[in-house]
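Fold sample X.
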Amino acid sequence: MDVISLTQKLIAFDTVNPPGNEAPAAEFAGELLAAGGFSVALAGFGENRKHLIAEKGIPKGGKPVVLSGHFDVVPLGSGKWKEDPFNSHIKGDKLYGRGSSDMKGGLAAMMVAVSEISEDLFPECGVRLVFTAGEELGCQGAADLVTNHDGLGQASAIIIGEPTANIPAAGHKGAVYLEASASGKTAHSSMPELGVNAVYKAARAVLKAEKFSFNAEKDALLGYPTINVGKFNGGLNLNSVPDHAEFTIDLRTTSRVDHGRIIDRLGEELGKDITLKVNVNLPAVYTARDDEFVQLACRICESEGVRHSGPAALPYLTDGSVLQSFYRGVPTIILGPGYPEMAHRTDEFCDVSKILQAVEIYRKILISWKNPSG
């Protein structure tokens, strides 16, 4: 497989989420991997949506390296594209197209890397590819997969191919997305004493959220947790007392934060007038900087010309939140050829040289990894 043409073919599948429509891309990738000797399974995730699981060389009871990414991409946005987002072109070293960085370049690099390893060098623990549908709106696809598919086995380590410009990252913050709401009683605005103003209730709660303290120790990799109120809505018209108001809360957490306790504490702090609904609840991804797998990835990236000062921490979410928990905390790195700053951008691109470099990095990590647990 030529990794650049494969990236272009994956980009040509319109997998904008919503609605996703990842099934054709998953079927295409599955056929290629099956032709290369992989055992392939496709798991449904709603209408015209599928996950892909492909395995090779896994002994009975073995713990393979899991390489993971997602097929879906975000909408094109309101800005006009200079390049066709689904008919990618190469200009100089830049390959343009929606998903080139986030993260079809990473998917292609993983597929080619595992296909290029000769039988005599193939890792003894084997390899499993886990490519998901439905990542972009909160990793719902991966959550569905680990809940409803029983063929995911065990793992010794995980590589998430999200965009890092091939700089290895050892973790990222977790996230809790909350919808907060307040109820009141409507009345004419000239007689507000006859109503109960839900906007006032919600506004008081927002000010409390601003001052909320996690009381958390600093995480060596991820720093401190954060809170942000991103949206606020209330009322229907100028001259009525509003009987409903709502706002959103985005918590970004570290390995030092217990989500259940924080949600409970925040609910108590905001008060009985506020109802909280949890929409996303994903733990932080964390692997110690001195972990054997992390250090292996760092050495190989350096040997391939990637300049870095050690394993990084990332600001965005990945399916690693779901997979690291499912695989009982095995070492997990985020490492992919795309540029983080190009994700979700108009005229998104990825460097051809980065995709080629990623193939070699993935291949060398797999060849070099000696699973200490057998």
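Fold sample Y, listed below.
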Amino acid sequence: MKNDSINEYLQSRIDAKDFPSAVYLVAEKGEIIFQDALGFAVVEPERIKARIDTIYDLASLTKPLVTGLLCAKLIENGEINLNDKISQYFSEFDTDEKREITIENLLTHTSGFEAWMPFYSGAVLPSSNEEILIKVIAQKELLNSPNAKVVYSDLNFILLGFLIQRINADYPIYFNTITHKDIFTPLGLQQTRFNPRKDLKKEIAASEMGNEFEKQTCIELGYQTEYEYFPFTPFRDYQIWGEVHDGNCYFMNGVSGHAGLFSTAEETFKIAQQFLPNYTKILKPETCELFRTNFTKGLNEARSVAFQLAETPESTASNALSKDSFGHLGFTGTMLWIEPETERVFILLTNRTHARELPFVNINSVRRRFNELATEELNKRSVN
């Protein structure tokens, strides 16, 4: 199932030290066409080769694969609407500045919230309690008014994770319990979860040594990084391996609406199929239109429900994919793109944060070239 052209290219990027490992999967019409694993999933403290079933920290792929999918199901069931004001569910947002923010704004990153803030900073928050987190977000001043601009923000999907909990009939219920009940179990997923079991550690690709990237980011943004009296150690100083890389998600006990999902390429593909009308088992086929529809026309980025669209300028989809293709990236080095007309799925999992000093390599050019090569190889196969 491996493809020589794709393998040669990805190996060249491993040799260039863009990332130590890569697992890819390319599918068409529900069938896996190409897949392989290259490099080492773990380099430090030991060397473990990547396999096609290596588990990766998917980082922000959590947003569409879990939070976006669950929101689509709630929309389908009429339990929420895109134009619902979030102040209906969180009274903290019933203010002049934030009263008009809708669920659609959160799903399309047009709420006006800033991109990121370290909840774990002692200057920000003393605990990971849901109510306090919501209050802190509600108190943050918006960068711009809702619908004015796309600003990709973790805060949007952290709120959506809390919203999903509140809408659930069994509330209070934990977010990871909902994901198991509504996604993982129905799809028969065995290696997809938040907070992987400790005995799976050697099957998981390693991430950064400590949290030096986030620590430096906090310093640059003026957040406190050292505390004398604080019950939570915000910056890990050991090899992050088998636990979530994202600092906020780690602070939230490894479970959140914006990050924390671990999975393999094949099980990521099983979830990806839920966004295609001919293969979804979780949604009604017509609901899948939400993911290829541009809700941000005229703005700086083309966004659908939980996804970026390929018509976005400089999208990592590359020009090889149709403009209504939809996809998402993960900070750890992961990527998913789906082309709805051809029912093609492109998955590239890397661990670019592992075994290298800062700065991490921006691998967007690698992602584009991967999509180009995969499309070329699929087209050759269809001609032959």
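Sample Y note: Strands lie at 21-28, 31-42, 48-49, 56-59, 193-194, 261-263, 308-309, 326-330, 334-339, 344-350.
Also: The first strand starts at residue 21 and ends at 28.
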